[in-house]
Amino acid sequence: VQLVESGGGLVQPGGSLRLSCVASGFIFRHYVMRWYRQAPGKERELVADITSDGRAINYADSVKGRFTISRDNAKDTVYLQMNSLKPDDTAVYYCKANIPAYLGGSSWGQGTQVTVSS
User: How confident is the model at residue 104 (pLDDT cuts 50, 70, 90)?
Assistant: First the structure.
């Protein structure tokens, strides 16, 4: 399992970024995909997840109405569109596949840094 996140950067409050996560080493279209984030000094938290067919989506309360998760199973890629960014969104963002442990589980990618600051 390999997950490669990209698209992070420095953005002003109110700005937007689109994160991408390209997956390989497993059958991407079979699994729920999740975006997590970890801010300095805080625990990693779940931001959003999307079912294998993209029909069911969940968001953390802190990002509802501002972030949109989507996936392209033909490209083995999951996205996170982030709008109306706030300083509290500053974190390293990671994607992860919800692969059960008995099937080998899923490792973490290197993450992509998002910094929201004026």
Answer: confident
